[in-house]
Fold these 3 entries.
Entry 1:
Amino acid sequence: MLTREEDIDVHALRKRGWTISAIARHLGRDRKTIRAYLSGREPGVRESAGSDPFERFEAYCAQRLTDDPHLWAATLFDELLELGYERSYPTLTRQLRDRGLRPACEPCRPAKDRAVAVIEHPPGEETQWDWVELPDPPAAWGWGKTAHLLVGALSHSGRWRGVLCESEEAPFLVDGLDRVTRALGGLTRDWRFDRMSTVVSPTSGKVSASFAAVAKHYGVTVKPCPPRRGNRKGVVEKANHIAAQRFWRTLPDDVTVEEAQRRLERWCATRGDIRLRATADGRATVQALAELEPLRPVPAPFPAILTVTRVVSAQALVAYAGNRYSVPPELHGHTVTVSVRLGATHLDIATLPAPGRGAAVPTVIARHRLAPAGAGASIRDEGHVTALTEAALAAFTTAGPHRRKQRRPPSPAARAEADNIRRQLTGDTSSSGEVDVVVDLTRYAAAAAGRNTLTPAPTQDTPKETNHQ
């Protein structure tokens, strides 16, 4: 088999008038090989010495894979063995690939392999939304193994913003929508989502009843993406990729949630908004295009209730959004819920319902003024401070720790308890605290009579009986 370079040399030397024998000696090849390549043999392809053993199975394999594009090659191999196939499994898979017998399944094809069209996005028409799951958040956040970033992008200009959230539940989604919309500068006519269950039904694509109220409040039209068509919202998908690689990948471990949020906003303003975009008049920055979009003002936040669980610290404080709020000191170490109505100026801290009570309403134990997120403030109630001080003073002691080898015999109270156990074992349950002693004189009389009736021992003067034969 000749390489492509050798094939080129063979044809070039032949055109110069060289004979086949001279070319074969020059390249160190057989004359029949040189003659075959001059006759049109393809370089780099080794011709089979015999007939094609797969040819009689090709039609069957093509039909089976047309009927079922996802049929395993191992299953097809089992069927071919029963039909007399004598080659190996790797040979079968190579033949399937080389002959292109497995057709592409259109519903399962990735988006990058499909033909796509350029979608026009007029200014102010559409905002695209998507969740990004970010692995391994800092342990101090207490969010577990995954953080969630809600990203919103203006389809026309490409401006995007994101909000870090503890969960993807509906209240966190509504809070993120409001915050990102205000960061983008206003509302567009349409909101485009993929088929997330908190917005639309994944199967039918219809808007859920709970999110319909949110859409009416902000005056937008909800448009779901077609199923398995991620490129329909390619603007926000690209923003997701940038957020994961240029923001999350380099985030240090010692930052708080609020600091991470500020870093993201700063990056979007200083890096993301200065990107150049192609326009009909040339090129313009994302910021310049976004400022020309006709966005509507954002109304007051939708009154959703955001609820999270927290553990009370030793100082009877509950952490929320970069601040701490006081509770009664007896709740130290307990789990409580923090509830905030979006747009409100206060938060409520409540205890968890007791298990086994069904849908019991949590008991609100504290209500505080809501401090700005990330301010690091400690909001304390005077009553909580007084109760905490009293509890700390009551538990205060100057006694030193106990020595391990110190002698500590049972106390009088412990001995009294031991006596009580002994009385219970003997069946005496009198309340006098002492065992009653009963004196019976008949026992003494019986003992004296027994001593007086004893048989006397024999004396030496008593004659002994003799036995005479």
Entry 2:
Amino acid sequence: MANKKGKGKGPFSSVIAQNKKARFEYHIDETFEAGLALAGWEVKSLRAGKAQLTDTYILIKNGEAWLLGSHITPLNTASTHEIADPTRTRKLLLHRKEIAKIFSRTQDKGHTCVPLKLYWKKNLIKCELALVTGKKQHDKRATEKERDWNRQKARIMREH
């Protein structure tokens, strides 16, 4: 049976880009869903899957949320009359209460806000944000041990 839209990692997957490093580096406390204000060439590039979220973070300034450090590679066939900046600051569309909550939590020591993934929701592009706290070195080792153990369990189950 073929993959349906929004399921799995097939050609019709709804996930555009993920920040896998964030799940390893941080404890995720709370997640939010935000819209993105994008230019036309950026949407075309995202349809082609040309996005990267590593080393990306969220900045709250003047009551608005901004996505900094994301990289959307412009397509060669995109608009020729517009100069495309792949690392420009993009505005996140959130409710005022959500922005206030993120701002107050990021003022606490050790807390920050990072994007986890970009994905399609019907015809809109959404960004999943998370309020996070940094992991210590021993927490990272425990995460790695758990991942290795899950791999071994899966291998044992396949063999039997």
Entry 3:
Amino acid sequence: MRLYHSPTSPFARKVMVVLRETGLIGQVELVPAGGTPVAPGTIPLERNPLGKIPVLERPEGPALYDSRVICRYLAEMAGGGLYPQARIWETLTLEATADGIMEAAVLTRYESVLRSEESRSAAWTEAQRGKITRALEALDARWMAHLAGPLDCGQIAVGCALGYLDFRLADLGWRERWPALATWASRFAERPSMRETAPAD
């Protein structure tokens, strides 16, 4: 298999963590790729027409894209433990919540670095930050027990989402507002799979 990824993408990081947690990392060739919505760069458009990473080439069919699809595929290869059937809907919903945080954070980042200052929209940025805030409130209010349970892909997604906030949107001050969630994130970040995939410019 071949994985196109960027070390600064939270979506790619989620796949990289899953590869390590499942023991499949040795079966994948890692191919650096990067770009933006306005300049696709080295993203393999012939494998993902949407122009996003990560993308996973596999021997038995077309390339897979969207981190949730790739993570589910890898988890199935490894026996499915990261998507436990007993709490599958909770795991999927938690993963979707974390992915929403990542998407809003990436869009906020794009607004500040891809647009000229005069063309930036404060209302757009605030709308994205509002999504992040509401999602963090939901995690703190409803999901702490799940986060404290056995490892699943929902937890991995949340860990990567919170790590991206620390990496790109530290001014949100989310750790001070949600200390229990911050404590969980700090502990989760100590997993070898998280330490080995921590983003850096």
